[in-house]
Write a structure and sequence with these properties.
It is a single chain. By secondary structure, this protein is an alpha+beta fold. The chain has four domains: 264 residues, Glycoside hydrolase 38, N terminal domain (7-stranded beta/alpha barrel, Alpha-Beta Barrel), CATH 3.20.110.10; 146 residues, no CATH class; 230 residues, Golgi alpha-mannosidase II, domain 4 (Beta-galactosidase, Chain A, domain 5); 96 residues, Sandwich (Immunoglobulin-like). It contains 16 helices and 52 strands. Strands 24, 25, 26, 27, 28, 30, 31, 35, 36 and 39 form a ten-stranded antiparallel β-sheet that branches. Strands 1, 2, 3, 8, 9 and 10 form a six-stranded parallel β-sheet that branches. It is globular. The termini are far apart.
Length: 804
């Protein structure tokens, strides 16, 4: 008797890269070839385009879009994935990941008239908190089968077709697994599966899940004309009774499933992470921080009423268009295929940054707060009090600035940081709270904080060129001192330079490592293992961060990475075994058995490797997929903070302060000389719009939207939107202090739906957070409502002037 089995497929395509390189026919052709595949095979399937791709398709080929929309509304095809820009989510910020899903879900609903319910992306898109973010955008189902393309992702091979994929906060999605019935897009893979099924058979309830990338072009290898003969043979096998369903329909019928909470030790992204000095994810984080800073700044200015920095109370279009450019730039091909199409992604990054444009707001805030002559306006776009670097006439110092606020300061308010002094053969920074001693001859570093001391070796730098190992761990010249900066060149051949200085906050040391591959290093060998590694002589328990989460990793695995041997499309491929890799967005905390440790923050070297006696950060690498395109120079900023025990919420706050430490996201503006007719400030000298009293909760985003419907059914124009994240795994009742009259406060999902009213009294709001929860709160602040001018009273200015 035939065994019942279900078959479905996903058709992956995108506007990014594919339409740029192959032309306007790509998305319409993919739709038409997919519908042909459905007609001739009888199958139901799933479409996985980038959200921006659906927008382009609707505008550029309305006929093809109408066909696709009809197929979706009939139930023959389901829209899956639904992110706006198809990123490798693991490599981008927590807030970017929320916005990817929000902008994607809103795009799908606007264009197709349906909500998203199934997450399934063809390229690796995983991190532990993802199920929570997806559930908060209305998703119920998922798949964790990612196809090998330019990358070689790995997830646990499951013996069952369906599990409940669980996030750290307990959110669950019914999920199709990676298993032996997964198919890639090649007819040859179908034949291999048929041969295996002839021996092993299958079980009732199994699912054949196949990825396709349909484009009916002779310049492409995945076309329905190539796939249909072998697919029909598989579907016509008399041993099976094949049923067709979309992935969401199949998963909706699965009553029970075992629970899986996958960790970062369970997965491997399979990418050339570290390539070109992590230029793509670094730029992504930089622009994200700039954009969030602009959002906060314009929200703050709107709270103070007119004059606004622009016509309206908040520049919704500019900031949302900036996000759309950023989310599009984060597309996996802009990173994976950087040498092929990454230049377009960098143009999108630039457009996003230009549209964010916080300068207008900063100028207006300065004109209204009016710092004293020789003073500063210091802005803090983070949801916690922090120290900000200021370059005073007497030297570099810091000032404390309140949460989501600003402070007007003069020279006397700046706490100067210590300067380097030479003490025999060593160099020292000394203050009551912090000390650092560098001994270049012994290649050692001693750090002291109020919590204790830590001694370690300075990091070495290693790389392979021409098959030979090179190592830099000794001076090429005497160190030089310039106030708070200690710098030196390393041998061999001066490829490596280091710079050390005190960090803002006065309890950490900043260490910059830069690499210039001149001479023999210009022929840097390719691959992760042969890349430029910053080597730390450290061992211990490892804690690392991912989007909106921090977790422990063991980093004990061997993982495959494949590369072309020549032309990326046609040459044979070779494999590298990557030993004990682990990933870190911005921090690695090396913790001893007594709980003390060294927190290493960094501004973007995300790929790390663990050895028996050391840790290695991949500063840069040459990627064969980019062929002869290689960004030679590389630089990373590390911040070293010894501690006697630290919470994950504190780790998160420290790491956010480091990203973009050029202060691009935390401006300090020297005051202009006041005009002869001195103005009177109409804003307070220091101000905090919003703060939180729960130490395990971070306020991670503050912005505004056009409108939202409150639980009472009232439409609120330009609501304030706040994101809160619990990082320590403990429930919390956070009290939010708001410097405004709160008319309404309510918690929603990430789309602004299903509101729950929150108690608001005397500017204080209570929010209950679940462990590891990512929560969203909407606020109607009376002082921040748009103030409409009576322009009709000024009609005489315009009405008859043309008759003069």
């Amino acid at each position: 008797m035939p065994i019942p089995i279900t078959y479905t497929f996903g058709n992956h395509m995108h506007w990014a890269d594919m339409e740029w390189l192959w032309g306007y026919h790509v998305l319409p052709g993919s739709v038409q070839d997919m519908l042909r595949f459905c007609r001739e095979s009888g199958a139901k399937g799933n479409v996985n385009f980038d959200g921006i791709g659906y927008e382009k398709l609707a505008a550029e080929s309305p006929e093809a879009f109408a066909e696709l929309k009809a197929a979706v509304q009939s139930g023959a095809v389901e829209v899956v994935g639904g992110s706006y820009g198809q990123p490798y989510g693991l490599f981008h910020g927590g807030e970017s990941n929320v916005r990817q899903r929000v902008y994607g879900a809103r795009t799908i609903r606007r264009l197709f008239g349906v909500g998203l319910r199934t997450f399934w992306e063809e390229e690796f898109d995983f991190f532990p908190q993802l199920p929570q973010i997806l559930a908060g955008c209305g998703f119920e189902f998922a798949s964790l089968f990612f196809q090998w393309t330019w990358h070689s992702p790995e997830l646990p091979m499951e013996p069952v077709p369906v599990v409940d994929w669980e996030a750290p906060d307990g959110s669950r999605l019914r999920t199709a697994t990676r298993n032996r019935l997964n198919l890639h897009q090649w007819p040859e893979d179908i034949q291999i599966l048929m041969d295996e099924l002839a021996v092993a058979g299958t079980r009732p309830g199994d699912l054949i899940l196949q990825w396709l990338e349909l484009m009916p072009s002779p310049d492409w290898m995945c076309r329905s004309e190539l796939l249909l003969p072998k697919t029909k043979q598989l579907l016509g096998d008399p041993r099976f009774e094949v049923h067709f369903a979309t992935l969401g329909d199949f998963l909706a019928c699965q009553a029970e499933a075992p629970v899986r909470r996958y960790t970062m030790d369970d997965v491997w992204h399979g990418m050339s992470l570290g390539k070109n000095g992590d230029r793509h994810p670094r730029r992504s984080h930089e622009v994200e921080r700039e954009l969030q800073s602009a959002e906060f700044l314009y929200a703050l200015l709107g709270r103070f009423g007119r004059p606004y920095a622009q016509w309206d109370v908040y520049p919704v279009w500019e900031l949302e268009e900036a996000w759309r450019n950023l989310l599009g730039a984060q597309h996996h091909d802009n990173h994976e295929c950087e040498g092929l199409c990454g230049r377009v992604g960098y143009a999108q990054f630039g457009m996003a940054q230009a549209l964010a444009d916080p300068v207008r707001g900063l100028d207006l805030l300065e004109r209204r707060a009016i710092p004293p002559e020789g003073g500063w306006l210091v802005v803090n776009p983070f949801g916690w009090r922090r120290a900000v670097l200021v370059q005073a006439e007497a030297g570099t110092g810091t000032v404390e600035v309140p949460s989501f606020g600003y402070r007007v300061v003069g020279p006397d308010d700046v706490a100067l940081l210590p300067v380097w002094t030479r003490e025999g053969d060593t160099y020292a920074l000394r203050s009551p709270e912090f000390g650092a001693v560098v001994d270049p001859g012994a290649w050692s570093l001693r750090l002291r904080t109020a919590q204790g001391q830590r001694s370690l070796s300075l990091p070495a730098v290693e790389w392979h060129a021409g098959g030979q190992l090179y190592r830099s761990d000794r001076l090429a010249s005497e160190p030089t001192i310039d106030g708070q900066a200690l710098s030196f060149l390393l041998e061999p051949e001066g490829h490596v330079a280091m710079w050390l200085g005190p960090a803002a906050g006065g309890d950490s040391l900043d260490l910059v490592v830069s690499f210039e591959p001149c001479g023999s290093a210009a022929a840097l060998d390719s691959g992760i293992g042969a890349g430029v590694h910053v080597v730390w002589n450290l061992t211990g328990e490892l804690w690392v961060d991912q989007p909106y989460g921090i977790s422990r990793v063991s980093a004990e695995s061997k993982r495959p990475r494949k590369y072309p041997t020549g032309d990326w499309m046609t040459s044979p491929q070779r494999f590298e075994t990557v030993e004990n890799p682990f990933e870190s967005q911005s921090l690695v905390d090396v913790v001893e058995s007594d709980g003390s440790g060294l927190l290493i923050l960094h501004d973007g070297s995300m790929q790390w490797l663990r050895r028996n006696d050391s840790l290695r950060s991949v500063l840069t690498m040459r990627d064969p997929w980019d062929e002869d395109r290689f960004e030679t120079d590389a630089r990373v900023l590390f911040r070293l903070h010894p501690h006697a025990g630290v919470t994950s919420s504190d780790r998160y706050r420290r790491s956010r302060e480091l990203f973009g430490s050029t202060e691009a996201h935390c401006r300090t503006l020297p005051a202009a000389h006041p005009p002869e007719a001195a103005r009177t400030p109409d804003l307070p000298a220091h101000f905090s719009l919003l703060s939180c009293d729960a130490p395990n909760v971070a306020l991670t985003a503050l912005y505004r939207e056009t409108s939202v419907v409150s639980p009472a059914g009232r439409t609120i124009d330009y609501p304030f939107v706040l994101r809160l994240v619990e990082f320590d795994g403990r429930p919390a009742t956070a009290r939010l202090r708001v410097a405004a009259t709160v008319a309404e406060a309510f918690e929603t999902n990430y789309l602004g739906e299903a509101g729950k009213v929150l108690s608001a009294r005397d500017g204080t709001i209570q929010v209950k957070l679940r462990p590891f929860g990512i929560h969203t709160v909407y606020l109607d602040l009376v002082e921040g409502r748009k103030q409409v001018r009576d322009l009709d009273a000024k009609r005489e200015v315009w009405a008859t002037v043309h008759r003069v």
